[in-house]
Amino acid sequence: xxxxxxxxxxxxxxxxxxxxxxxxRAHFALASYWLLKDTARAxxxxxxxxxxxxxxxxxxxxxxxxxxxxxxxxxxxxSEAAYLxxxxxxxxxxxxxxxxxxxxxxxxxxxxxxxxxxxxxxxGIVLNQSVPLAxxxxxxxxxxxxxLGVGVGFMNIEQYKKAEDYINRAIAxxxxxxxxxxxxxxxxxxxxxxxxxxxxxxxxxxxxxTLKVLLSPYPESELYAxxxxxxxxxxxxxxxxxxxxxxxxxxxxAAGGANKVYVIQExxxxxxxxxxxxxxxxxxxxxxxxxxxxEEVMGFAGSRLEIFQGxxxxxxxxxxxxxxFQWLLKYADLNDSLYKSKTIENQSKLDVQFQTAEKxxxxxxxxxxxxxxxxxxxxxxxxxxVLGIATVLLFFVAAFFIFYYRNTxxxxxxxxxxxxxxxxxxxxxxxxxxxxxxxxxxxxERQRVARDLHDGLGGMxxxxxxxxxxxxxxxxxxxxxxxxxxxxxxxxxxxxxxxMMPESLLKIGLEAALRDLCESLSGNSTQIEFQAYNLxxxxxxxxxxxxxxIVQEILSNAVRxxxxxxxxxxxxxxxxxxxxxxxxxxxxxxxxxxKEAKGIGFINIRNRVDYLKGNMxxxxxxxxxxxxxxELHVA
Length: 635
What we know:
The structure is a single chain. Helix content is 75%, strand content 6%. It has 24 helices and 5 strands. It has helices at 4-14, 20-34, 39-52, 57-71, 76-90, 96-114, 119-137, 140-156, 160-175, 181-197, 201-215, 224-237, 241-254, 260-277, 281-292, 295-298, 301-317, 321-368, 371-469, 477-500, 503-508, 510-521, 541-561, 600-611; strands at residues 527-533, 566-574, 577-584, 615-620, 626-633. Strands 1-2-3-5-4 form a 5-stranded mixed beta sheet, with helices on one face. Helix 17 (301-317) crosses helix 18 and helix 19 (371-469) crosses helix 24 (600-611).
């Protein structure tokens, strides 16, 4: 109950000339003591112990257990990791001290699961891992405390008879050893609380009297809080509500230690019930509203349920039916959700209870029967087991085949979907290849015709013009007309050749070719404004030609068909994406009718846009002009 003398002794060890291992142990012990009193001191001792333990693997493993305690309150995830690390490292040491440290580390890890509202996980870890290690360690005090923890876990899931069993085990173990009396007192406190839930109030009185005797040598002990709680619960049952409230207040003042907050919370919940019972509704509301603001308390479903019920009762007692009804609805909703979540578990428990009862009846019946009847019953039972096993096996086989059939069917459907998708992709690739071949062939043919026109027929016409020019100026006027016609023919020939394959595109790149195209199509009736941003001059020749043809077709439509007076052409590039925007003030058209149009102009544009895996968006209204936005992928 008082460890100040022990702490002084441990501090004295640090002043002596002893080994680093002894000093490391002393620092770890002092860290555990100061954790709840002075965190700065605690961390200083943890750090010192860590440095001194570097040559001792066993003590380094113990360090992680202390580190888990350091993170325990504020950083539970780090605490869990540290406790599991300690268990892992200590598992290589088959001695009692290691078993004890592992048992305590795993128990604290289990408590962290309990703090997540998972008492079943807590019970499983303690019974399957912590308790066996505690037995191996031979430390009855730890074993008793862990039995008590399991009892509390069963209380939390409302299995009070099982809780009674483990709490009584804890009391039996702790009563037979000369351990810290606080452990035995804590066990009696929990026993009394469990009897309250079992409604065995005579047992509460017996436990309360025992506690009074055990606590008498320690009048200032924080463990008096448990005694006052039990006394208050007993008085509440006897309808002595004011006396019960007085005991709860005494318990709140007496509370202390690592679990002080939780003890006070438990005391306040009990006090609220007594306040409501004696019609002190406003005082009850103050406490309930403080709980509503406490995130930790509201994190537990059971606490929320109790708070909602108390708010309903308090507002109803004050005559505020509307607010009372609202809290009643919240209580009902939460209660329903908790009920649904426990339905499967309760069904399982009922099934187990039913099977147990049936077996007990069968045993009683077998005992009452003669030997021959007993043998017949055993034979029948064996047959039933065989039939049951066969039925279960048949069920699993049928389930397996159903599962296998469904999976096979799903796989077949998925394969069919994949096959169709692959076929579609192949068709698309083939169409792209065909389109690419057609476009490339078209461009090659354009180049050939342009070259032939320019170099062949164009040269011939130019020669004829020169020869005719050398004729005497005095010859017939008809000769001048022929020369003029030849000039026009040469100009038209060069225009056609340039349209089929502009020299500027071949020589100085896309941007210059587009600018030249805009200038060539501009005239008195139509002005074309060209804007270029960040165009890459190193695009493949085929890509540049495709872009040029798209722009050429758009401008041709705007000038020849839309009779536009003003055309704005913007070309820009952002990495692998090339953007074309063309706006005109021409006569416009019905976009919906474009899908059924048979003209080759827009068809060529669409084909080239598809070839470059692009998108085209057209906005046009009759007599209000046209806007075309094109996005091409040129990577």
